[in-house]
Structure formats: structure tokens, C-alpha cells
Write a structure and sequence with these properties.
- This protein is 21% helix and 18% strand.
- It has 91 residues and is α+β, with helices and mostly antiparallel strands.
- The protein has a single domain, classed as Arylsulfatase, C-terminal domain, CATH 3.30.1120.
- Strands 1-2-3 form a 3-stranded antiparallel beta sheet.
- A hairpin with a 3-residue loop joins strand 1 and strand 2.
- The longest helix has 15 residues.
- It is globular, with a radius of gyration of 15 Å.
Length: 91
Amino acid sequence: MQLADGWTYTAIRTPQELYMEMSEARKQIFAPPEIEMYDLEAEPDELHNLARSTDPAVEQGVRDLAARLARPPGCAGIDSRDARWGTAFCE
């Protein structure tokens, strides 16, 4: 994803959560790195970033989504909806 400021982010979205982190180039400029996580069920407008929460359950959620985002994709597209990819959605 590229934002209006020209910087890029990678993200993972589940039905319940959205997790984003800045590109590697931007990580070299900003410390700590920018990350965002939103609870889409409780707060669909994405106004309250939970990524820096001290709640242990939220911290675990951030770690889990960061690990999923770091994994190389094994497939793409959504079966029966996005046939151009030829494979089903990974998860």
C-alpha cells in the first residue's frame, strides 16, 4: 500500500483486525517503527490505534499478526471470486 506521502506500508487484514507496518526504508528513519493495529469489530472506523497497547491480549494479537505478515505468501486471490490468480486465498 502506498500513501499520499509516498511511503509504503505492508498490511494484513482479517475480518476482525487490521495490522500495518511501515516499509523497510522508512524503518531506518523512524524509531520506534510505525505500526498500527485496529479492532475492526469493535471500532470499524479505525480511529484508535491499538498497536502500542499494554494489554497482554492486544500485545499477543500484534505479535501474531506481525508474524503472519512476515511469512512469505503461499497463494493469492480468493477462490471463485478472483480467478485470475488461479489459486485460493491462503487463510
